[in-house]
Amino acid sequence: MDATTTAPALLLRPWRSVDVPALVEACRDPVLRQWTSVRVSDEADGLRWVESQREGWTTGDRFAFAVLEATWPCRTATLMGHVVVLKGVARGKPSAEVGYWTAAHARGLPGRGRRTSRLLPPVRPARRARCDPRRAGLRRPV
After folding, report:
1. Would you give per-residue pLDDT tens digits along the chain (142 residues)?
2. I want to staple 11 with a disulfide (CB 3.0 to 4.6 A). Which of 25, 27, 51, 70 is the partner?
3. What domains lie within the chain, and their CATH numbers?
């Protein structure tokens, strides 16, 4: 599927400090607060949260991505949500879990909310993530 005006391109990339204002805004949504453990009320909370996402990459246990709606030529991007791969959720077994949330303004939009619920295909990584499942000790389920 190609990006169109009704199904724009989505971009996954690790969280950055420049994402904090949009993160704070997304976390004001009462529905998001009801269904997730994300508690970001201000810029300081947002910076701590982004840093905790970076720590997950460093330890190799948590690979978190900002989901952005990119505009050509990628000069601007709108935060649409968050997706995370958690490694080792089943103690003693190679396993992973995927979690996500969608910003309120992205829910229910044609080609956007439904895309997120199907693990965001097609998604174009900003750069190849250093998260090779084989290096992380994970195998494809059978």
Report:
1. 455 555 667 889 999 999 999 999 999 999 988 888 888 999 999 999 999 999 999 999 999 999 998 766 556 789 999 999 988 766 777 778 899 999 999 887 655 444 444 434 433 333 334 444 455 554 555 4
2. 70
3. 10-125 (3.40.630.30)
